[in-house]
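Subject: for your reference before the review

Hello V.,

The reviewers asked for a structural picture of the protein, and I figured it would be easier to keep everything in one thread rather than splitting it across files. Below is the amino acid sequence we used in the manuscript, unchanged from the supplementary table.
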Amino acid sequence: MTTADNKAVFRRFYEETWNTGDVGILDKVLAPDFINHEIADGDVSHRELYKRAVIETHLGLPDFALAIDDLIAEGLWWSLPCQGGRANIVSPCHQ
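And here is what came back from the structure prediction:
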């Protein structure tokens, strides 16, 4: 997969999932054994938990959307350098 391919998949993942609340793409872009390292292991698939998180986020925040301004995707690694709004877990990068 090229760097451009990595960026396209990642962008599609965020824009189609988080910005619309549509979890249908997750079966295509997250492996069945996907592990979300932000949560503890459990009996439920991490992919299914991720779907629930997206749905619950949009139920509570119907206008929720993410903007990707910078995307670094070299080799197997990707990164969103910072976020621009206030969140409970990450401070905005401009502060």
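For the response letter, the relevant points are probably these. The radius of gyration is 14 Å. The chain has one domain: 3-79.

Happy to draft the paragraph if you're swamped.

O.
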